[in-house]
Amino acid sequence: MKIAILSQKASLYSTQRLKAAGEKRGHEMQVIDYLRCYMNITAHNPKVIYSGEPLEGFDAIIPRIGASKTFYGTAVVRQFEIMGVFSANASQAISRSRDKLRCLQILARRGIGLPVTGFAHSTKDIEGLLDIVGGAPLVIKLLEGTQGIGVVLAETKQAATSVIEAFRGLDANILVQEFIKEAGGMDIRCFVVGDKVIAAMKRQGAPGEFRSNIHRGGSASKIKLTPEERSTAVRAAKAMGLRVAGVDILRSNHGPVVMEVNSSPGLEGIESATGVDVAGKIIEFLEKNSSTGSNRDRIQY
């Protein structure tokens, strides 16, 4: 197979691992900076052009689209789909998961466990919003935040009001969520490929830190999932339409709740913590599905 990895940097761990895993299995792998691609959008001969040459003959692509580059990145993925190339994650699914509010609304519609979440536009409605979510402490999140940036723990209702007013003063969209105290600063990253959780790790926040992101000093270790947690992760990925996903779960008193569904989950932490060849599992998935993925799935938006 001829497989393209859409990544801004060939030096990134995840990109290198995917390239090496594909080459190990005998495939022709090419890393392509999707921001340097440009497109010829025509009805009969659509093309993606890179370094002056059309990208042709690819059987599959693996999108590694940065959160801040979602609009252009998904446009490139969509163009490949129009050309009949199978994508590890469909462009629409990537866009859907990147919109945190839309993601939560879709998960709620599917009956998947979530923390109590509130969303409002006007600062005049803060009191009602906080009443919906419940008592302090509360977690306030920027919709555009990543890797724990833009996530604030408000210890009191007054603090929550001040933070919301400050964010809204900057015209930033925010979510307010219940604080799952019993999680103890720990969450679970479930790595889903196809219809299975192929690896799972526990991420524990640094002392005094309620956010468990490894980028913020958290530690990672292998964990055994309950059947309910495994089912929740797979259902969440499917609800987004993602074939490859990192699903972040908290253990709450009322069962597993989904915090986020990531369409470009990193490989370094999960492979190091679990010893699972995640990159190899992704390549294996492409081998089994790139020739059988229906054209309808590839180009329906």
TrEMBL record:
Q: What is this protein called?
A: Probable alpha-L-glutamate ligase
Q: Which residues form the ATP-grasp domain?
A: 104-287
Residue positions annotated to bind Mn(2+) 2 are 260, 262
GO molecular function annotations of the record: ligase activity
Residues holding Mg(2+) 1: 248, 260
In short, the EC number is 6.3.2.-
Q: Which Gene3D superfamilies match?
A: 3.40.50.20, ATP-grasp fold, A domain, ATP-grasp fold, B domain
Organism source for this protein?
Almyronema epifaneia S1
Is-annotated flag, keyword Metal-binding?
A: yes
> Which residues take part in binding Mg(2+) 2?
260, 262
What gene is it encoded by?
A: rimK
